[in-house]
Amino acid sequence: MPSLAETQRGFAAAVFASDPGSIRPWIRANGLSPERRLGLYRNNTFLGLSEALRDGFPVVHRLVGTEFFDALARSFVAEHPPRSGCPLDYGAEFPASIAGSELAASLPYLPDVARLEWAWHEAFHAAEAPAFGIAELAAMPPEGHTQLSLRLRPSVRLLASPWPVLRIFHVNQPEYSGDPSIDLDRETGCRVLVLREGAEVLLHSLSVGEFACLERLSGEGSLETAFEAAIRAEPGFDLPASLVRLMGLQVFSHPARSA
Amino acid sequence: MTQNKTIVTSTLAAVVALGLAGNAGAAEKKADGDKCYGIVKSGKNDCKTLSNACAGHSMEDGQKDAFLVVPKGTCERIVGGSLEAPQGGK
Amino acid sequence: MAVVLPAPCLQRAQGTIPASAGIGLRAEHYHEVAETRPAVGWFEAHSENYFGGGGTPLRVLESLRADYPVSLHGVGMSLGSVDPLDERHLTRLKDLIMRIEPGLVSEHLSWGSYNGCFHNDLLPLPYTEEALDHFVVRLTWVQEFLGQRLLIENPSSYLEFAHSTLPEWEFLAEATRRSGAGILLDLNNLYVSCRNHGWDTHEYLRGLAGGPIEELHLAGHTHRPMEHGDLLIDTHDGPVCREVWALYVEALTAFGPKPTLIEWDARLPPLAELLVEARTADRHLEARSHALAG
């Protein structure tokens, strides 16, 4: 008689490795073969997770259609079964899996579209945090500015792509009514800021300097290194004006409260 | 070091001055650059939690040989471009 | 259009789940539920969908909690697994419990992961003494960790293990008795499993007599033709069938009026249709209360 551990090992092998060998003798046929019974569970896992991916990556789904998406999803599920019991966590590695898939080799922008959708998903569910804006900065004594360490709010995500993924995302929203055509010979890459404002996830285009600045801050860099990186990345960068804009977008969290 | 701190203090002083002068709108326009699509809101803002494991599936997995499957969606509207990434990103 | 909600309110509805009908809170209904505040006794939310820490789902749930009792129903704890318990999962649940102050918290008599890989499914346990001991130890530990008593729900299943030595109802009764947990009896799951394995529904209910039944679930299922007759799949994609309503009446007679959830997860109907099902359950509950009073 198999132990509980052996039962679960055999069951998992039947579902994820299509290998029912060790568990088959311990399943009652009762009118239906053990293989068919295990097949139902395999089906539930693969279909359920493919559906979860479709929910999380609606633009990728729309770009390639259901049949192709499901083929991508199936190979992803087989290679990357969920590592947690929370479905919200599932799909972080899907963009990299698409990038490595021969199936999608003719759609080189697809992995970055998927990265943008995952950033959207993370922003949608991220924790709340009060914003640090102009008013908060102005309330500080100027001597305190050198001690200030600005951090990004929990919902902020950054993405740089050599492909026009922000436009691809935009024209593939269900409510978009314009011409969805995109010419890759005419449109270039983009840098995207993803963040949640209230209940809504918003996507903004960033300049080269803004992106460099925020990227440093997201990597726990100091204000000095972030400002320097911004100026280095974009000649003639208007740092104060950009910071006013970013503060207006509520990118930064309150340093005292986010520690 | 001293020079770095100067960057911080002078920049933040300028930010406060600019922000309090109510020039945020003008500053935003200026910093926006030329190829900005502005804000994109997504249609799925309303809801969408992910599918739950509570219920089973009655359909059989319509698995096909992966090599037979071709993309059939709005990617057909994305034209041009070689397999090399174009310039202009990061 | 985004869901617009009032700021979270500190005043809250009473937390206890009443012996009336409740419905599941589903994302597709957020907007309508937030705006219309339907006349329903309580809501049940799938815990894991609110593990994100912020955003619309939590806002909706917190705002609803101001007006309704809420029950939290989990699917991903994998209580029956031999894998170590996932402390991150349990911590997220504990945080959610503190935030929402639910009237009931439930999980399943099942397992879901092996070697750290999750199936996203409620998998059947072999009903052996070894599995029972294991389940009781884990359930006891989790209740202590959460500072919260759990209800355990019977699953739908599509296979039986040859090495099972206990009937499912006995395993469930014994696991909850030893751990002090309660029972969430899903009558659709009971019906589906009994049909699939040739168990007797009456014997199942009799086997739980005197047990701590504290919530009932009702849902729809699907018949899938197989070589040797239909297999029933617990799809939660339609109305409650006649046989399950009959079983519901039998359960109310045996256990008294209990909080009853209408579960509908796939091919979700308009909210109004869900509320019709809930009213049917309420009529049965009222009839049973009157019978007891008279």
Describe this structure as you would to a colleague.
The complex is a heterotrimer of chains A (259), B (90) and C (294). With 259 residues, chain A is mostly helical. Chain A folds into two domains: 1-107, no CATH class; 127-259, Outer Surface Protein A, domain 3 (Alpha-Beta Complex), CATH 3.90.930. Helix content of chain A is 49%, strand content 10%. Chain A has helices at 4-16, 34-56, 58-64, 66-79, 94-99, 110-125, 134-139, 165-171, 208-218, 223-233, 239-248, 255-258; strands spanning 151-152, 157-161, 182-183, 190-197, 200-205, 252-253. In chain A, a hairpin with a 2-residue loop joins strand 4 and strand 5. The model of chain B is unreliable at 26-37 and 43-51 (pLDDT under 50). Chain B is built from two helices and two strands; from the N terminus they run H-H-E-E. Chain C is α/β, with parallel strands linked by helices and 294 residues long. In chain C, 39% of the residues lie in helices and 20% in strands. Chain C has helices at 30-36, 56-65, 87-100, 129-146, 168-179, 187-197, 201-207, 242-255, 271-293, and strands spanning 21-24, 42-46, 70-73, 104-108, 111-114, 117-123, 151-153, 182-186, 213-219, 222-226, 229-233, 260-263. The longest helix of chain C is centred in the C-terminal third of the chain and has 23 residues, at 271-293. Chain C is globular, with a radius of gyration of 19 Å. The mean pLDDT of chain C is 94. Classes of the chains: A mainly alpha (259), B mainly alpha (90), C alpha/beta (294). Chains in contact: A-B, A-C, B-C. Strand 3 of chain A pairs parallel with strand 2 of chain B, so a sheet runs across the interface.
